[in-house]
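Hello,

I think I submitted the guanosine-5'-diphosphate-rhamnose job twice by accident. Can you confirm which output corresponds to this input? Input:
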Amino acid sequence: MKKKTALITGISGQDGAYLAEFLINKNYIVVGSERRSARYDTWRLKRLGIERKIIREELELTEPYEISRLIKKYKFDEIYNLGAQSFVKSSFSSPLYTCNTNGLSVLRILETIREFSPNTKFYQASSSEMFGEILTKKQNERTPFNPRSPYAVSKVFGHFIVKNYRESYNLFAVSGILFNHESPFRGEEFVTRKITKGLVNIINGKQKFLELGNIYSKRDWGFAKEYTEVMWKMLQQKKPDDYVVSTGRTYSIKDFINLCTDYLKIKTKWIGKGLDEKLINLKNNKIIIKISPKYFRPSEVDLLIGDSSKAKKILKWKPKTNLKSLVKIMLDEEIKYFLS
Ligand code: GDR
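Support: Only one job matched these inputs. Its output is below.
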């Protein structure tokens, strides 16, 4: 049987790496793209031992010509659009760049597929951030969006243009509304990895303390490796459709920190309130976590909690890793690579 060829944009990120590994194991030819200006960061692919199994292509998602060149060259069976300006906080300082890269690029790809490769199946990385200030207790595919950042607005555009092209031109184009998903491959600017890395650095004397923003926001956190498999499942269905991917449980950043200190067996105590809240290491009375206004966002998403019953029913998918196990996975790897 002819091997399938897939394009993964954003190959050097957390999801790109896990998805590439998954598709390679399924015998796909994987083409991985990254923007030219980005340092081609291969540590995740190297750690998975798949760096040499990927065909690398430079692709600037804001350049329509580059997209059509690549799509004409490979006539991909599947495209997974994971490339984005994915850090919510940066979208407040770079709103135009964020909307161009995350929003309009989806349209650029869809237009090219429509014109040159209409049988290519397309996966768009939509985000739970689109729900923003939530309008229902749990969020599913029918929950209205209420975005709270330029990032979320850009993702809403991407989401609806996928739906529009699916309905107007009969393309096999879908969006996965993925809630937060973490792993040892998470970028260090995102809160979970910042915490796991920071705490391991602190207990090893490499860092004095960690500064965080709003530790009371709550997120529905799953394990990224399981979430990338579901992207593939969405493209293997008879009918293209959108799906929420989540665990259905929500925890605050403070809960996440407490799970980490429990796992690391550091005896701690929270003191103070608001910007003066601190986490103290009871062994030496030193501050290990402080709050800094620097990490607060102009508008915050306070609470997210997903309902992925549609994915469970139709894709036969459900999450396997709870937050406690995820903390263990992340910290074990953090310790292993700190010591090596
Ligand atoms: P998020 O992830 O914005 O939910 O988007 P992030 O980990 O950045 O923030 C989660 C929550 O933690 C609070 N927070 C901090 N966040 C960061 N990054 N750094 C801090 O120091 C800090 N302190 C508190 C934030 O305010 C927020 O409430 C992620 C991204 O991967 C998106 O691309 C993706 O679409 C969604 O998840 C689903």
